[in-house]
Amino acid sequence: MAKVRVASLQYFIRPVESWEMFRDQVASLVQTAVDYQAQLVVFPEYFTVQLLTLGDVRRPITEQIRWLAGQVPRYTELFAGLAREHGLWIVGGSIPMLENGGVTNRSFVFGPGGRHGAQGKLHVTRWETEDWHVEPSESLRIFQAPWGRMAINICYDVEFPEIARAAARQGVEVLVVPSCTDDRHGYLRVRYCAQARAIENQLYVVHSCTVGSLPMVPAVSLNYGQAAIFNPCDFAFSRDGILAEGVPNQESMVIGDLDLDLIRESRSTGTVLPLRDSQRTAEVLAHTEVVEL
Asked: Could you say which of 45, 128, 173, 245 is catalytic?
């Protein structure tokens, strides 16, 4: 049987007074997930911005973001060490990264052996582009784990169904969505699209969110979030398509057991077979007609 227990974080971002304070917050959450016997722990997008409070928050935000990108070596060392120490998989939210003279938004995945890879954000939001000067990445990556295949849609990326569909056609059964949203509107855009991706691709979606506030940092001065784990809407799964969810805007952790054998079975014997039947979509669209009445 292919099962994996997941811990999805509602991560409370707060000012920190030292790198050690940040490290201890992260390590304590990972330890809590381990105490609940989680095998995969998911942090949210841009939770790392709390490190900006270690520097001069009066500097232009573009300078601060580049400084934060300079923390990537310490960040990867911390998470690789935790993954290795506890023998689990960690999706380390996201952190800005310097690439080819520009800045991208990268979500790192750490395996139990301490090795890591990263998925870049493929579609960046207006404030990322206009205020932070973050540039989009170019490729989708699929991560192979002993229990199955996993892909990452960073926040806004989940609003583009073609990405998750391409991943599902490559055998992905777990889609991870780390997000950072400042208001309920933005949060619900991500949540509703995450639920849709679970239904149309017959896979689990693990949504992790930031909560709390950093009033001194533009774009993340407020956070609205509710972590959740979504599944297909079919008899073998929870009735409303929600395996687990937290209480909005409270620091917490959502735990759920993903049964990947159910995913594989539903893709061949489900009440409906949207992933299989989506193969017909291209044929239908090729015969699109405009009808004048």
From this structure: 45
